[in-house]
Design goal:
Radius of gyration: 27 Å
Largest sheet: 3 strands, antiparallel
Bound molecules: zinc ion
Helix content: 40-55%
Shape: rod-shaped
Strand order of the largest sheet: 1-2-3
Order of helices and strands: HHEEEHEEE
Distance between the termini: 48 Å
Number of helices: 3
Strand content: 5-15%
Number of domains: 2
């Protein structure tokens, strides 16, 4: 974040220099100096927005680094199961709805995880017949 803080410091230095010039300026120069000060104020706002975006992205990255996928494709953060499909394709952390017996559904994409009638296995069962996608 120091790059953005440095930019803010630079803006303050320019503003101070502009204030010193205003006292000696002509009317036209005063107008241009006022425009320059407005532009600096806009820059400060842009920097504040960038800082906020940076903090949000950093928080998301920290969360993503904590994700552990299980063999069903669920994305776990601590004890909370999330939809691995939504996380992978849409970059969204959707909390899975738990039903019972290790059976979960995603409220967003309706993906099912686990099977009510099948006990949890350590690895997926390989099908005898090749699966074709339609
Ligand atoms: Zn989903």
């Amino acid at each position: 974040m120091s790059l953005l803080s440095n930019a803010n410091d630079s803006i303050e230095l320019v503003k101070t220099a502009l204030d010193a010039k205003v006292a000696l300026a002509t009317a036209e120069e005063k107008e241009r100096l006022a425009d320059a000060k407005l532009a600096l104020a806009d820059l400060k706002l842009n920097i504040a927005e960038l800082k906020e975006q940076n903090e949000q992205l950093s928080a998301r990255l920290r969360t993503k680094n904590e994700v552990v996928y299980d063999d069903e494709g669920r994305a776990w953060v601590g004890n909370q199961a999330h939809c691995g499909g939504c996380l992978g394709s849409k970059d969204k952390m959707i909390v899975l709805r738990y039903h019972h017996a290790d059976y979960y559904t995603c409220p967003a994409c309706k993906m099912n995880y686990g099977d009510i009638n099948r006990p949890r296995k350590s690895s997926p069962v390989k099908p005898d017949i090749p699966i074709t996608l339609r």
